[in-house]
Specification:
- By secondary structure, the protein is an all-alpha fold.
- Helices cover about 75% and strands about 0% of the residues.
- The chain has six helices and no strands.
- It has helices at about 1-20, 30-55, 65-90, 100, 105-140, 145-150.
- Helix 2 runs antiparallel to helix 3 (about 65-90) and helix 3 (about 65-90) crosses helix 5 (about 105-140).
- The longest helix is centred in the C-terminal third of the chain and has 38 residues, at about 105-140.
- The chain is extended and about 65 Å long.
């Protein structure tokens, strides 16, 4: 809840700018409730799905496979709150009714694309992080600039 509360003005500003809409101070916390619910539901889903993957499926914790699946499924679970958020962020004159706004195929498409993007990014991060950690440790232990400092 704290993260959402602190970052909501920035998120709403970016959303308005991407839609080429004006941003007013009153827009800073627009659609706050569905956004908080989305984040809470997503967090609970990630926790429970991670536990399920580790205990029921026997997957190792903090692996790319687990992170990808958990993020993918958590995005699907929290998607209805994201749709509600989008509906509430509409501008007044361009506002559609809920029936006009909510198009199941558009919702499914955006959820699948967003979920795969998030899942792949996190899975790739978990896959590449050990190699990057080793590289950073190697560079810190043997800095390439050390020979330049010792030469003078």
């Amino acid at each position: 809840v704290l993260f959402t509360t602190l970052t909501m003005p920035i998120t709403n500003f970016r959303a308005r700018m991407s839609l080429q809409q004006t941003f007013r101070l009153a827009d800073a916390y627009q659609a706050y409730s569905p956004t908080v619910m989305r984040d809470i539901v997503g967090g609970v889903a990630r926790t429970r799905l991670t536990s399920f993957g580790i205990h029921a499926l026997g997957w190792a914790p903090q692996t790319p496979k687990l992170m990808f699946c958990v993020c993918l499924l958590a995005c699907f679970i929290s998607a209805p709150f994201n749709e509600l958020r989008g509906y509430l962020l509409q501008e007044g004159t361009e506002r559609k009714s809920f029936r006009e706004f909510f198009q199941p195929m558009n919702c499914i498409r955006s959820t699948v694309v967003g979920a795969f993007n998030f899942g792949l990014a996190l899975g790739a991060g978990y896959w590449i992080a050990p190699s990057v950690r080793c590289l950073v440790q190697l560079l810190l232990a043997n800095p390439p600039w050390a020979s330049l400092l010792n030469a003078s």
